[in-house]
Write a structure and sequence with these properties.
about 300 residues, alpha/beta, Arc Repressor Mutant, subunit A, D-Maltodextrin-Binding Protein, domain 2, 10 helices
Length: about 300
């Protein structure tokens, strides 16, 4: 059985598209189509039903896909049995993660991981939108916040501590709040993914009711990206409530000042997401273990 044909078939089946599979694999579409035809001829059955608008698995294709993925994992496991002699893990993998993790934690430590696995190729995507792991060809996703996709396997890592911050210029102009009541004289930068929400407010823990609440506040500007969120704070447009990890560098530089540490937003869960716990390639398992190890010191331990 040809390993490359299995890999191509698996990707086409996951994406339901020859062209997108070719793009993600870095192959010509004609090569992908020919490989599938050769695989079907070798097996003596049709695996994919093609129309001008869609590609879907046949019943034989569905049964073969499960076994195909098992074979791909088994083949890779065989390839890494003697990894010290062969120079470590091999292959390519793609990861999506928040920019702050990539910039401040993962990429600075990446040279040491790649030095142990010089034949491994890693693609890192940083975006504020929620990517589709299967359709966009990611091996795993590092996600901050509440999880919404029940089809993916989640591995919780920890919680991100939150902080409140504003620029020195803003605090010089409007004053430094000491209590929640002082916030009536202030404004915030509103983070909202779709720019349609008008529920701007300050999140805090209400000890009297043992619950998190939101104090409505005016916002001069709304943004839908983390870089813009920080930029708005640096420009003196109001307070932001953001993960401490992403703010620390700017605080150390004196570009932002932390305020009201007793009234911070709810810590945000951090998780690794992947498609199937039984079909996880050794290189994906290894990079997830590595990311967990280096991220743990920056997170609050789960209880």
């Amino acid at each position: 059985m040809d390993f490359d044909e299995l890999r191509i078939f698996s990707r086409v089946a996951d994406l339901a598209s020859f062209s997108r599979a070719a793009e993600q694999l870095g192959l010509a579409k004609g090569h992908v189509s020919t490989s599938i035809q050769q695989l079907e001829a070798r097996l003596g059955t049709r695996l994919l039903q093609r129309t001008t608008r869609s590609v879907r698995l046949t019943e034989d294709g569905k049964r073969f896909l499960d076994r195909c993925k098992e074979l791909l994992i088994e083949t890779e496991q065989l390839q890494v049995m003697f990894q010290p002699a062969s120079g470590g893990l091999t292959g390519r993998l793609r990861i999506d993660m928040p920019n702050v993790f990539a910039r401040d934690v993962i990429i600075p430590r990446l040279p040491e991981f790649l030095s142990a696995h010089p034949l491994l190729e890693i693609g890192i995507s940083t975006t504020d939108r929620r990517v589709d792991l299967i359709q966009e060809g990611f091996d795993c996703i590092l996600r901050v916040g509440v999880l919404g996709n029940a089809d993916l396997v989640a591995r919780p890592i920890g919680l991100m501590q939150m902080s409140n911050a504003a620029s020195p210029d803003y605090l010089s102009q409007y004053g430094v709040p000491q209590t929640l009541a002082d916030l009536t004289q202030h404004r915030i930068v509103h983070y909202t993914p779709k720019l349609t929400s008008n529920d701007a407010g300050w999140e805090y823990f209400d000890r009297a009711n043992n619950a998190y609440k939101t104090l409505p506040m005016p916002a001069a500007v709304s943004v839908n990206g983390t870089d813009a969120y920080q930029a708005a704070a640096l420009a003196g447009l109001g307070f932001i409530q953001a993960p401490t990890l992403g703010l620390q560098r700017l605080v150390d530089q004196g570009s932002l000042v932390l305020v009201l540490p007793e009234f911070t937003a709810c810590p945000m869960p951090v998780s690794l997401l992947y498609a199937n716990r039984h079909q996880l390639a050794p290189r994906v398992q290894a990079v997830m273990r590595w990311m967990t190890d280096i991220l743990t010191p920056y997170l609050i331990e789960l209880t």
